[in-house]
Amino acid sequence: MTYEKLQFKKTGVIAEINLGATYFDKLMMSEMNDVLDKVCDDSDIKFFIVSGHDGVFNKGIDFYNFSDSEMIDVADFNRWEKLTHRIQNINAVTIALIDGVCDGAGIQLALSCDLRIASQSSVFSHNEIKSGFLPGSYVMQLGKYCGIGRVHELLQSGCAYTAEQAKEMGIINDCVADPSLALELRIKQYSKSSIKLHNLTRRLVREAFEMSYNDFLGCCQAAQHQAIINNQGDPQKTANLEHENRGVISAL
Fold it and tell me: Rounded mean pLDDT of 141-166?
């Protein structure tokens, strides 16, 4: 199927979306949801990559072409939140490949992914308040990565910051000269891991920030039980994986 606002391709176990438009409007959201339907129905997919085009990852929401009605309302924002929530729960390793401008809801899209790789020339900013709206639910994620004081400053000022600064704040994982090479290394690293264990770990990390210790301990033990079953009681497999991953991380 051919899309107007984005390009989609699957190569082996890797699915890739290239955002062909600078802003998210209602058509791009519809096309994105269609792609996510395909990805979620394809159990062969192990990696889901999102990238931009021509020096722009994404500049956020087109507030003037985002609604089916004349005036944007909360229901429109809710559809956007549901889309990013879908990305957060894809049964694959999700990676945002950022090379250029990443603003507002574009940052929310990137934060919905497991990993964020950015070129050294990439620039970030939060433009929602300047546009007369509030930022989305990704405020919670930002707070976990860089703290309430820094988040308040970033959102209220709307000032741009570099990829290096984003890396220092924990907003991105890799700030590199060659994003494509970094992507290859990350795919190599995560290819050695079980997708089931990846999803269990993703869920466990989120729950660690949302539950009391006693509640989290129960979830942790339940997840560990599933991991033991998945690993079939092979401790050497886990030891080998940890050794190989250390080598990949040192190369980034």
Answer: 92
What single-letter amino acid sits at 163?
Answer: A
Q: How many CB atoms lie within 10 A of CB 234?
A: 10
Mean residue pLDDT of the chain comes to 88
What does pTM read for this prediction? Answer: 0.85
> What is the C-alpha to C-alpha distance for residues 217 and 221, in angstroms, rounded to an integer?
6
- What number of residues does the chain have? 252
Distance of CA 25 to the CA centre of its chain: 19
Give the DSSP letter of residue 130: G
Q: From 176, 169, 183, 101, select the one nearest 141 (Cα to Cα).
A: 169
> CA 9 → CA 42, 189, 198, distances in Å?
13, 22, 23
Q: 204-210: long-range contacts (C-beta < 8 A, 24 or more apart)?
A: 209/144
CA 101, distance to chain mean position in Å, is 16
> Please, where are the H alpha helices in 98-159?
105-111, 138-146, 148-157
Give yes or no for residue 187 having a pLDDT over 50: yes
DSSP run (H or E) holding 123: strand 123-125
166: tokens are: 């984003």
Please tell me what DSSP assigns to residue 36.
H
Mean of pLDDT values over 175-183: 97
Domains, the chain, ordered by start: 6-189 (3.90.226.10), 194-251 (no CATH)
Nearest residue to 64 via CA among 56, 51, 76, 52? 76
